[in-house]
């Protein structure tokens, strides 16, 4: 084979390697986004990626668009560019909306002066609100009073917060002091705010109020509340202890407020857990919360529990803690029998024969390793007669089969039985070589064959 052909083939190998390297290493950069205040949700190119401060977030090079959303503040949006191997840092001060969450959005404004009907208040004053352009909804301390121009009368002398809101314009708010038997003026020159058209609002109330509000799976506050969201579908969930969760999917329209009124249904069907302990007067914890002590006869009943799985821990000084998993069903009482083992001077439990039981384990196929409470105890089939009463975990392991795991209950003086049928482990599938690997193989084979023919 001529020498120049070999040089060409070697050049092809090098070029192919460079192509593989270039195709696998996409050019990226990093971005840091900070806001004051922090805790704003960060969306990049329309996808939520976290909250501020956002540090060392990797993006492909080129132009991107970020948006910051935080309840009570105007949304912020701007484009930025990412360069390969460099870090871009963005810092922004969010502008407060200056509006409480109980404000409501009014509909079509009138074109004439509005006067609010009131009950006379001695020594009262008034506020005359005007805006440019006119027709803005006017709120005084969060209460809708009409559309500008509007005269709000019969106000007790003190300082009020007045807000003007008009679709397509930024909210304008300031404090106005009302004096006895006089009129105070509120004038607002509204500024266009096109960015507000890219967002909408979800206003959520509940009966009873004070429930936790979740939107898109994130905690957003206590009802009643109003949150800012991108247009599109958003799952809304309202939670309150003692009531069933309320859920609804809301479609948000830019520049509009969607309202959710959640009537919560109380959990009428509940269950209970009876804990029987030895010794008596033991502390009982349910999902980590202290629920009381067993009485002198060793019993404690925990009532009004929604259906579900709970963790019960029973403890007493000088005894080993016992932890159980219990299923609570509606209208039923579940039982937990706890027998605690005294702790010896060396710090290890010392169960007495009366506090022990046995376990017999078989498996198909046999010969599986037996782990009880994560400790290796032997191979199947086997019987273990030194187990303390209470709940235990069992795991069986055998090469070529999937692990088998379960829990079992040991009662005083009795033998529990576990018969396990092991499932074969799935056979891994070999992936076919890609086209790139095939091309490399062809080039290498050609190079070898050419070398053999070369005199």
Keywords:
455 residues, mainly beta, Immunoglobulin-like, 4-stranded antiparallel beta sheet, 36 strands
Classify the beta-strand content into a percent band. Answer: over 45%
The CATH topology of the largest domain corresponds to: Immunoglobulin-like
Strand count, sense and barrel status of the largest sheet are:
4 strands, antiparallel
For the record, give the distance between the C-alpha atoms at the N and C termini, rounded to a whole number.
Answer: 7 Å
Question: What is the approximate shape?
Answer: elongated
What's the CATH architecture of the largest domain? Sandwich
Within CATH, the superfamily of the largest domain carries the name Immunoglobulins
The top-level CATH class of the largest domain is Mainly Beta
Oligomer: single chain
- Mean model confidence by pLDDT: 78
Total beta strands: 36
- The helix-and-strand class reads mainly beta
Overall number of domains = 5
Helix content: under 10%
Low-confidence stretches: 18-25, 98-118
DSSP summary: helix tally: 2
Strand order of the largest sheet: 3-2-5-6
Radius of gyration: 36 Å
């Amino acid at each position: 084979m001529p020498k120049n052909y070999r040089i060409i083939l070697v050049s092809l190998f090098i070029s192919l390697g460079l192509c593989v390297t270039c195709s696998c290493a996409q050019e990226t950069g990093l971005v840091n986004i900070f806001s004051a205040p922090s805790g704003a949700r960060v969306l990049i190119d329309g996808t939520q990626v976290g909250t501020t401060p956002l540090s060392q977030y990797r993006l492909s090079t080129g132009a991107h668009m970020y948006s910051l959303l935080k309840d009570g503040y105007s949304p912020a949006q701007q484009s930025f560019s990412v360069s390969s191997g460099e870090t871009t840092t963005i810092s922004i001060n969010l502008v407060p909306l200056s509006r409480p969450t109980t404000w409501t959005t009014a509909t079509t404004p009138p074109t004439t002066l509005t006067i609010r009907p009131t009950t006379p208040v001695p020594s009262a004053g008034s506020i005359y609100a005007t805006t440019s352009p006119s027709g803005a909804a006017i709120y005084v301390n969060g209460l809708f009073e009409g559309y500008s121009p509007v005269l709000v009368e019969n106000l007790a002398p003190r300082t009020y917060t007045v807000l003007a809101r008009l679709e397509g314009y930024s909210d304008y708010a300031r404090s106005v002091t009302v004096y006895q038997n006089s009129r105070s003026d509120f004038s607002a020159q509204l500024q266009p705010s096109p960015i507000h058209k890219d967002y909408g609002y979800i206003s959520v109330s509940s009966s009873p109020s004070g429930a936790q509000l979740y939107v898109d799976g994130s905690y957003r506050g206590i009802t009643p509340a109003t949150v800012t969201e991108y247009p599109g579908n958003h799952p809304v969930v309202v939670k309150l202890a003692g009531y069933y969760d309320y859920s609804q999917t809301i479609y948000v329209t830019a520049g509009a407020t969607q309202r959710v009124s959640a009537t919560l249904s109380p959990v009428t069907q509940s269950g209970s857990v009876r804990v029987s302990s030895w010794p008596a007067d033991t502390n009982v914890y349910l999902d980590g919360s202290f629920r009381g002590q067993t009485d002198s006869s060793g019993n404690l009943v925990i009532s009004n529990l929604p259906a579900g799985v709970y963790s019960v821990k029973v403890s007493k000084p000088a005894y080993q803690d016992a932890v159980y998993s219990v299923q609570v069903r509606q209208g039923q009482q579940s039982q937990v029998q706890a027998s605690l083992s005294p702790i010896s001077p060396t710090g290890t439990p010392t169960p007495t024969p009366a506090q022990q039981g046995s376990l017999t384990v078989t498996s198909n196929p046999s010969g599986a390793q037996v782990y009880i409470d994560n400790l290796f105890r032997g191979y199947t089939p086997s019987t273990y007669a030194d187990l303390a009463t209470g709940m235990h975990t069992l795991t069986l392991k055998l090469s070529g089969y999937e692990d088998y795991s379960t829990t079992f209950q040991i009662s005083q003086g009795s033998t529990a039985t576990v018969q396990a049928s092991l499932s074969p482990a799935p056979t891994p599938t070999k992936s076919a070589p890609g086209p790139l690997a095939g091309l490399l193989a062809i080039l290498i084979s050609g190079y070898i064959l050419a070398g053999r023919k070369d005199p």
